[in-house]
Amino acid sequence: HQGHARGLDVGDTELATNISKAAFDRHLIVETCGAGDTTVKMLPPIVIDEDELSDGLARLSDAVAQATSIR
Question: Which of 26, 14, 11 lies closest to 71 in space, CA to CA?
Fold first, then answer.
């Protein structure tokens, strides 16, 4: 299976880790990567319908909001 990789460089290892954990709590699997693990890597499928994409982005947005509120 092929996917569509995208990364969100947050510039901070702890923040990227917290986003990844918060996303997992929302049943969204993302990984940290890059120099110092400061990037949150997303791997959605190439073929995805708009509702699934919107749901995934909402979960990611919620995870980022939670992770940034911890700081």
Answer: 14
Distance between CA atoms of residues 22 and 43, nearest Å: 16
pTM score: 0.89
Count CB neighbours of 33 within 10 A. Answer: 15
For the record, the structure tokens of 39 come out as 């990037």
Burial of residue 2 (number of CB atoms within 10 Å: 0-12, 13-18, 19+): exposed
What is the spatial distance between Cα 52 and Cα 44, in angstroms, rounded to a whole number? 10
Q: Indicate the DSSP class of residue 34.
A: S
Per DSSP, helices labelled H in 1-71 are 13-25, 50-70
- 41-56 pLDDT, tens digit per residue, is 998 888 899 999 999 9
Q: Is 3 helix (H, G, I), strand (E, B) or coil?
A: strand
